[in-house]
Amino acid sequence: MEIRKLSAAEIPQLAALERRCFSDPWSERAFESELENPLSLWLVAMDGERVMGYCGSQQVFEEADIMNVAVCPEDRRQGVADALLEELERRLAENGAETVALEVRVSNAGAIALYKRRGYTQAGLRKNYYFHPREDAYILKKQIKI
């Protein structure tokens, strides 16, 4: 597995993975706009030319928000998400980020467990944050350092 910055060539695979993983998937155009955004950092975990997973963030000064994390169902429980988050946090810290935050469905026990293992703590709750189905989101935060 190789982790690298997202390139335009991988966007169709990301959009396909979004459709597999999320009820409100991002479009190819949404990912393209992230590549054009100087505040964004998106990473992919690759097995050759195949995307195993990805994560992305936006950073404003010392604060970063993780926008999305997804791993192909067949590649889950192999450390892909953990490796992606490790590299994302490292790069954000190198870029001056001090904290990172994200939202996660309150029912997503697997993701919550991963984030807690990585040192994220609950900082709040967003009521009715998600659609299809409507659901609350935990706000999780972590202090990061180089």
Count of alpha and pi helical runs: 4
User: Proportion of β residues?
Assistant: 35-45%
Helix content: 25-40%
* Biggest pleated sheet: 7 strands, mixed
What's a quick, concise take on this entry?
The chain has 146 residues and is α+β, with helices and mostly antiparallel strands. The chain has one domain: Aminopeptidase (3-Layer(aba) Sandwich), CATH 3.40.630.
Which properties best describe this structure?
146 residues, Aminopeptidase, alpha+beta, 4 helices
How does this model look, in words?
With 146 residues, the protein is an alpha+beta fold. The chain has one domain (2-143): Gcn5-related N-acetyltransferase (GNAT) (Aminopeptidase), CATH 3.40.630.30. Helices cover 30% and strands 40% of the residues. It has a seven-stranded mixed β-sheet, sandwiched between helices. 29% of the residues are buried.
